[in-house]
Design brief:
There is one protein chain. Helix content is about 45%, strand content about 10%. By secondary structure, it is of the alpha/beta class. It folds into four domains: about 180 residues, 3-Layer(aba) Sandwich (Rossmann fold), CATH 3.40.50.620; about 80 residues, Orthogonal Bundle (Glutamyl-tRNA Synthetase, domain 2), CATH 1.10.1160.10; about 60 residues, no CATH class; about 100 residues, Arc Repressor Mutant, subunit A. It has a four-stranded mixed sheet with strand order 1-2-3-4. A three-stranded antiparallel sheet has the order 5-6-9. Helix 3 links the parallel strand 1 and strand 2. Helix 1 runs antiparallel to helix 5 and helix 9 packs across helix 10. Bound molecules: glutamic acid. Glutamic acid binds next to strand 10. Glutamic acid (GLU) binds next to strand 10.
C-alpha cells in the first residue's frame, strides 16, 4: 500500500510536517532537575476532592524544583463538557493554593485565555496539531482509517452482547475481536477513495504491533516497578470529527509541552501500554509517570469504597459552604499524600505546608482513606493557631455568604466578636473549638442575646433547691471587678455552704461525705449563663457578657426553676 498517498487522501488539508510543529515548541530552558508538570482536567463538572491530589503533587514537585506547572484543559469530549466548568475549576484550585505558571488562565472578564509559549492549552484549539502527527503515523504505516460507522459499531456490540449471554467463553470472544480487527486492517486504497467520495466519516486507529504475551518492564515513580502486557489493540487516535482521544492527545501534548512528569489518577494505569506504544511510534521520549492512588472512604458497613462523585466530601464546593479553610484542607491533603508530613509539621508548627520537602518516595501506593474526623482535627489545629483578627475576618466572610443572621450579629460590633475569639487563644495550648466556620454559630451564639438559647438541661439527680440557691448566692456577690481567683473563691464558698466539696482532693478521698463538688456548682452557673454544659472559660465569658447580661440570664433561670 502507498501510505504516503493514503495520508494525502485522509488529510489533504494538513501541509505541515512534525518538524514544523516541533520548531514552534523548542525544549524548555530550565535548570537541571527542574520538573515540568501539569494538571489536565476534563471540564465536566465540579472539582472533585480527588482532583486536589494530582494537582497538589504537580504543583509541589514543579515549584519545589524550580520548574513549571501548567494547566491544560482536556475538552475533547464535547458531550460531557459542562458550560463554565473550566472557569470554576481554575477559581476553585486557586483557593487551594494551586496556581499555575502557564496554561489556561482567567482573563479580566473571567474568560479562559492562554498564557505561555507552549499553547494553545485547550485541546479543542489544537485540532490541526494532532492531525499533523496523525498524518505522519499514516505515512509510516502505523495508523489506518476505519470507516465502520458508530451505528455499525453499536450493532456489532449488540450482537456481541447477545453472543456473550450464550457464550461466556472469553477465549472465543477474544478471537472474535481479533478477527474483527484483522478484517478492519484489510482494506484497499480504492475502498478508502470510495468511502471518502461518498462522504463517509472515519476514525483513525493505531496499527498495534504488541504481543500481550510479552511484558514491558516499567517503573512508575509511585507504584514501583510494574510488568505490563504489550498493547495489541488498534485503539482510536482520532475520532470521526478529527478530535483526538485522550491517548493520542496525551502523547502529543505532553511531548510538545515538555512535561517531564505525568501525574494522574491510577485509573489510567490500564492504558499505560497503549501510551508507551504511542510514544514509541511517534518517536517521543517517554515522560516519567506517577499514578496516584484513589481516595477511599469507609462505607456504612465498614467496607472500603472509592470516594465517588456523590459522596459527602467529594465536591470541593461543599467545603466552601461548610466553611472549611482552604489552608486546613491543603494540610489535610498533605497528611494523606506524604506519610512523614505530620511529623515534619509537629517539628515545624509555624511553617506553612509549602515549606515541607515533598517526597515522592513517601507517597502511598495503595488508596488513601478520606476521613472527616481527621480533617476536622487538622482544621482545628490550623484555626487554633490563627490570631483573633484572622478568625474574625475569615469567619465573618463565610457568614456573610452562608449565615446572614450570624453575620449581622458578628459584624455589628467587630471588637466584641474578636474578644470572643480571643478566649484561650495565643498560649501554648490554644483552645480547639472550631473546625469549620459552620461551627462558629454554635460556639459564639451564647454571646448574643438574639442567638442565645439554653440547650442543655440540669441532670435530674441534682436538687432544684441547690441549683436555685447557688444562682441566688452567686448573684449576691458577683462583681465584675473580681479577678479570676477572687471570682472562683466565691464559687468555692457557695460549694462549702451547700455541702459540696470545694477541695477536689478531699472530695476524691471521701466522695460520700458530700452532695457533689465545686465543679457541679460551676455547672449550675454555667448552664444558666451559657445555656450549655460545656463552654469556654466561664470567667472570660462573663467578662465579655458584662454584668447586666449575666444577671439577667441568672435571674431568668431562677424564675424558670
Ligand atoms: N483528562 C484526564 C482526566 O481528567 C487527565 C489525565 C491526565 O492527567 O493525564 O482524567
Amino acid at each position: 500500500m502507498d501510505y504516503n498517498y493514503l495520508a494525502e487522501l485522509l488529510f489533504p488539508q494538513i501541509t505541515e510536517l512534525p518538524h514544523d510543529v516541533e520548531a514552534k515548541y523548542p525544549p524548555r530552558q530550565l535548570p537541571e532537575g527542574a520538573k515540568v508538570t501539569r494538571f489536565a482536567p476534563s471540564p465536566t463538572g465540579f472539582v472533585h476532592f480527588g482532583g486536589l491530589f494530582p494537582s497538589t503533587v504537580g504543583e509541589r514537585l514543579a515549584h519545589q524544583s524550580g520548574g513549571v506547572f501548567y494547566l491544560r484543559i482536556e475538552d475533547t469530549d464535547a458531550k460531557r463538557e459542562v458550560e463554565g466548568a473550566a472557569e470554576g475549576l481554575i477559581k476553585t484550585l486557586a483557593k487551594y493554593g494551586i496556581n499555575f505558571d502557564e496554561g489556561a488562565i482567567l482573563d479580566e472578564d473571567g474568560k479562559i485565555s492562554d498564557c505561555g509559549n507552549y499553547g494553545p492549552y485547550k485541546q479543542s484549539l489544537r485540532g490541526p496539531i494532532y492531525q499533523v502527527y496523525a498524518k505522519q503515523l499514516v505515512r509510516e504505516g502505523k495508523a489506518y482509517p476505519c470507516f465502520t460507522t458508530e451505528e455499525e459499531l453499536d450493532e456489532l456490540h449488540a450482537v456481541n452482547k447477545k453472543e456473550e449471554i450464550k457464550n461466556t467463553d472469553w477465549l472465543a470472544e477474544a478471537e472474535a475481536k481479533r478477527a474483527e480487527m484483522l478484517a478492519r486492517r484489510n482494506f484497499t486504497i480504492e475502498e478508502v477513495e470510495e468511502h471518502l467520495k461518498a462522504g463517509h466519516p472515519f476514525v483513525l486507529r493505531i496499527l498495534a504491533n504488541g504481543d500481550p504475551e510479552k511484558k514491558i518492564k516499567f517503573t512508575d515513580l509511585v507504584k514501583g516497578t510494574l510488568e505490563i502486557p504489550e498493547n495489541d489493540e488498534d485503539f482510536v487516535l482520532l475520532k470521526s470529527d478529527g478530535i483526538p482521544t485522550y491517548h493520542f492527545a496525551h502523547a502529543v501534548d505532553d511531548h510538545l509541552m515538555g512535561t517531564t512528569h505525568v501525574i494522574r489518577g491510577e485509573e489510567w494505569l490500564p492504558s499505560l501500554a497503549k501510551h508507551i506504544q504511542l510514544f514509541q511510534f511517534l518517536g517521543f521520549k517517554l515522560p516519567k509517570y506517577m499514578h496516584i492512588a484513589q481516595i477511599m472512604r469507609i462505607d456504612e458497613n465498614g467496607n472500603k469504597k472509592k470516594l465517588s462523585k456523590r459522596d459527602m466530601g467529594a465536591n470541593m464546593d461543599d467545603y466552601t459552604s461548610m466553611g472549611y479553610c482552604p489552608e486546613a484542607v491543603c494540610e489535610y491533603v498533605m497528611t494523606l499524600l506524604n506519610s512523614n508530613y505530620e511529623e515534619w509539621h509537629m517539628q515545624n508548627p509555624d511553617l506553612p505546608y509549602t515549606r515541607f520537602p515533598f517526597n515522592i518516595k513517601k507517597m502511598s501506593t495503595s488508596g488513601c482513606l478520606f476521613d472527616f474526623a481527621k480533617l476536622n482535627d487538622v482544621s482545628k489545629n490550623v484555626i487554633s493557631r490563627m490570631t483573633k483578627e484572622k478568625v474574625y475576618e475569615l469567619s465573618s466572610q463565610w457568614a456573610k455568604d452562608f449565615d446572614p443572621e450570624l453575620y449581622e450579629q458578628m459584624s455589628a460590633n467587630p471588637e466584641y466578636t474578636k474578644s470572643i475569639f480571643a478566649i484561650g487563644r495565643g498560649g501554648k495550648k490554644p483552645r480547639k473549638d472550631i473546625a469549620l466556620w459552620g461551627d462558629v454559630r454554635g460556639y459564639i451564639s451564647l454571646f448574643y442575646d438574639k442567638l442565645f438559647a439554653v440547650t442543655d438541661a440540669y441532670d435530674e439527680k441534682f436538687s432544684k433547691a441547690d441549683i436555685k440557691l447557688t444562682l441566688e448566692e452567686f448573684l449576691k456577690t458577683f462583681d465584675m471587678a473580681d479577678d479570676s481567683n477572687a471570682w472562683f473563691d466565691k464559687i468555692k464558698d457557695i460549694a462549702d455552704m451547700l455541702g459540696y466539696a470545694s477541695d477536689m482532693k478531699a472530695y476524691k478521698q471521701n466522695p460520700e461525705a458530700y452532695k457533689g463538688n465545686v465543679s457541679d456548682i460551676s455547672m449550675f452557673i454555667r448552664i444558666a449563663v451559657t445555656g450549655k454544659l460545656n463552654s469556654p472559660d466561664m470567667y472570660s465569658v462573663m467578662q465579655i457578657l458584662g454584668y447586666e447580661t449575666v444577671a439577667k440570664r441568672i435571674n431568668d433561670m431562677i424564675k424558670s426553676l
